[in-house]
Design brief:
This protein is of the alpha+beta class. Helices cover about 30% and strands about 45% of the residues.
Amino acid sequence: MTIDVTAERVVPLAREQVAAYAMDWRHDAEWTQGIRTAELTREAEGGGFGAGAEVTRTVHFLGRRIDYVLRVAAYDPPGLLDMVSVAGPMPMHVTYSFEHHPDGTLARIRVRGGEGGFYRLAAPLLARQVRGNLVKDLRDLEARLVEHGT
């Protein structure tokens, strides 16, 4: 894949609290850069959110509105949420992970994607933009949880 970017941050709260909030698609627009809406558009086989569920996100990225669908490939709370795009302008793989840390929780987001054509040419710019967004996402996640008591 053309882009492979990871950002991480230690959040001074218990892993279960951080992961429960961050893994809940209903909170996506509250802490994730550019997301305007997120909607559960397909439930997991057993119902609700889990492996096989799909979330449709509407984002604004580089001045454009983009609708894309992420399918949950792996869901193992409170440690891992792994999603792959099944519809949208470019292939994307997003992984959220949460590990115990002496000062709280090590929260990590990894984004991979953008094969071929335009995305190969724009990879340095896109990678820089994605990394900046991920750093802001984790900062906003911490602020939301710590300052607002969510």
